[in-house]
Amino acid sequence: MIRKVKGTRDILPPESRLWAAVEAEARRVFGGLGYEEIRLPVLEPTELFVRGVGEGTDIVTKEMYTFTDRKGRSLTLRPEGTAGVARAFIEDGLAQRPGPQRLYYIGPMFRYEKMQRGRYRQFGQIGLELLGAATPQADVEVLLALHEFLAALGFDDLVILLNNLGDPEDRPRFIARLKEELAPQKEELCGDCRRRWDANPLRILDCKVPACRAIVSETTPIAEVVSDGARVHVEAVAGGLDAIGIPVKRAPRLVRGLDYYLRTVFEVVSPQLGEGAVICGGGRYDRLISDLGGPQVPGIGFAIGEDRLIDVLPPAFRDRVLGTRPVVILPLVPEAAAPAFDLARQMVSRGIEVRVEVTGRSLRAGLKWATKLGARAAVILGPDEIAAGTATLRDLDQGEQEQRPLAEIPDALAQSKHAEP
Ligand code: ATP
Ligand code: MG
User: Fold this and answer.
1) Ligand in nearest proximity to the CA of 303
2) Across the beta sheet with 390-395, what order do the strands follow?
3) pLDDT computed for residue 319 by the predictor
4) Residues in CB range of 404: below 8 A, 6 or more apart
5) φ and ψ at 354, to 5 degrees?
6) Is the dihedral of CA 241, 246, 247, 252 positive or negative?
7) Could you read off the pLDDT of 177-230 as tens digits, one per residue?
8) For helices 136-152 and 15-32, angle between their N-to-C axes, nearest 10 degrees
């Protein structure tokens, strides 16, 4: 038996329905706010992520799927979506279009990570980017899009954590202060953090090891060190969200794993998954496009981990998506095939979910199969029905049945569908 690659997943039906339904909600909500889909390659030049995500990040140092192609070029399976959006923005001249650009993407990302619940080597992300607006209002809109999407799925227990990372100019000052405060306890930090000390000291704030967390919790928050410009910006974002009733929790030591963020950064956590498991991460990245050689265009965006999101979906949404009940059509003689498919065609166009029996089951076996499927009704086409131009319509909950002209069947089923609570 050939097995799937470690860390990848098969999303089987009916679970795959949840993925499709979640993505449909994203398209509806984001589309409603004027965001349009951008579909980008999964393969990119390695350099894009080294320069875009940052050389010292976990993603670039240890998580990328990088290989050389047949012509010796270094390619990488995309570990995240923002760098690709920035590349396309520059390469495809999106700056020439009337701005700002409102974009979203849905698709797989790849990171070589230790597998566990909610952590895979291929995982889905739903991401959104707003390019060409530097105002606090832009940040409010992006967080509104995020909040409305999660609300549409029925979430009411997710928490948006917000922090101010300051501007890149603030960072050396903050890092110097952080190191000064941590120096007495440097030897008590975990091995990873001692390595981060020189390579990427900000990431020490993000360490999940309890001992490191305790040490870090005593340090001065970055927001107390940032410039006035950054402070005013993020306070305006918080105020703008408050004014429209979107609750956020301030997280003074929140940092993100990607180098490009500045000022506004945020995460969404689920109490169901605990603090380690983040559903969504995002923030402002005003220098990314220019760092990649493009124009000075600011941006802000987020990426939602689809696997984790679906893992904690509210039961009502799950039930709504998974609880639909088909109608089965049982053609019992060869002459019944054409009327069966003709009925199926009419029912599909009325939005009635239908399954035609095509394996040659008898009436008894067909009804058993229908019950196993959770079907609400069966349309039986036997020799008598074919001769009379009728079908027997059987309600599988009540067990009642009646013979009706073929032409009435689709309407009868459409009505009983709407009659359900
Ligand atoms: P974590 O701290 O959990 O490693 P991250 O900071 O690396 O997350 P981001 O780069 O911000 O994650 O990606 C955005 C979202 O994508 C995460 O919040 C998470 O929901 C999801 N995600 C990231 N890595 C994985 C993975 N290996 N498997 C499944 N989902 C993931
Ligand atoms: Mg990670």
Assistant:
1) 1
2) 354-356, 327-331, 377-381, 390-395, 401-405
3) 96
4) 390, 391, 393, 412
5) -135, 145
6) negative
7) 999 999 999 999 999 899 889 888 888 998 889 999 999 998 999 988 999 999
8) 140
Report the residue count for the chain.
421
Ligand closest to Cα of 114 equals 1
Q: What is the mean pLDDT of residues 286-306?
A: 97
Q: Do 267 and 367 fall into the same domain?
A: no
The reply to whether 132 and 273 lie within a common domain is: yes
Question: Same domain, yes or no, for 275 and 389?
Answer: no
| Amino acid making up residue 190 | C
387 and 246 fall within a common domain: no
Closest residue (by CA) to atom 19 of ligand 1?
305
| Structure tokens given for 146 | 């995020």
Tokens 């690659």, residue located: 5
- CATH number, residue 277: 3.30.930.10
CB-CB contact of 160 with 143 (8 Å): yes
Domain membership of residue 53 (yes or no) is yes
- Domain extent, residue 357, equals 325-419
Residue 282 phi, psi dihedral angles, 5° rounding: -165, 180
Q: Which residue has the tokens 């974009």?
A: 103
**Which residue's CA lies nearest to atom 11 of ligand 1?**
281
Across 228-323, where does the E strand assignment appear?
249-250, 262-269, 278-284, 299-305
Using DSSP, state whether 420 is helix, strand or coil.
coil
Q: How many CB atoms lie within 10 A of CB 248?
A: 18
Angle of helix 136-152 relative to helix 228-243, nearest 10 degrees?
Answer: 40
How many angstroms does the Cα of residue 189 sit away from the middle of ligand 2?
Answer: 20
